[in-house]
Amino acid sequence: MSIRTVLGALLVVSVSCARKTPVGPKIDPALATLIPADTTLLVGTRLEALERTPVYQKYLADRKFPQVEEFARQTGLDPKKDLWELLFVSDGQHHVLLGRGKFANEMEPRLEKEGAKRFGYKGYNLIGDEKAAVVFFSASTAAMGATESLRFLLDQRGASKGPPAALAALMTDIPADAQFWGVYGGGPIDLPFTGNLANVTKLVSSIQAGSIYFDLRTGLNGIASGECSTVQSAEDVQGALKALIGLGRLNTPASQPELQKAYDGLRVTLQDQRVRLYIDVPEDVVDQFLALWMGHRR
């Protein structure tokens, strides 16, 4: 074998290794080690990256998101300055919101002054009551949820190896730089949607597994993908999505013809038992589009 051949082979190997980058959205290791092994739903938000996008700054910065606001209140964070990442985990019965941020040292005493009680479990202090509580794992990692769900989370502490294999496989369809994403592995699910999006919960019941992501850097862009149990159920989901889009078109005020181009950016495809919804909403109509589907303006 000639030196030229050896050098060529080494070059090919080095290039192929250099191109190997992490696939799917990155989860902070401190949060990944808290994901229970039987988790069937993960929803992640990279708040730092999200808040830097033009769409967020123009149309979402003034909106109130209940889950973010409640997490910030319970943990003493300024969500616009000190909250970096949120991760919702659920197995269909236990639901916990995990967060990374810069937590205030005086947060625990303040919560106690407001009437929250401190009680121990598995070597950790929970602050709240028997209905809901918050637990701090470190100065930058916390979890919030129903007390029963937090105890379940602590029972799994130390055994997690990150997202379960089925969810990790679904995450590979999501770009690494997506600011908001979710993966679903089947089972019961209760989505906190309002407005027209409340109908999405019914559709999810027909889906065995799926993923969704949004990128807000140049508009509202993303893909929702679902694998159904049968071809017929996939056709039903496709039909329901098209009906929802049609309903949105009908609800578009005559005084806002520019919204029609937002609906031109919604496309549904069907391949065997997989349904995909492609979302490509231009930046200049994102606010109106979200108002139509979420039920309120900024």
Summarize the structure in words.
- There is one protein chain.
- The chain starts with a helix and ends with a helix.
- It has a 12-stranded antiparallel sheet, sandwiched between helices.
- The longest helix has 20 residues, at about 230-250.
- The protein is about 35% helix and about 30% strand.
- It has helices at about 5-20, 30, 45-50, 55-60, 65-75, 105-115, 145-155, 165-170, 200-205, 230-250, 260-265, 285-295, and strands at about 40-45, 85-90, 95-100, 115-120, 125-130, 130-140, 140-145, 180-185, 205-215, 220-230, 265-270, 275-280.
- It contains 12 helices and 12 strands.
- The radius of gyration is 22 Å and the shape is globular.
- The protein is an alpha+beta fold and about 300 residues long.
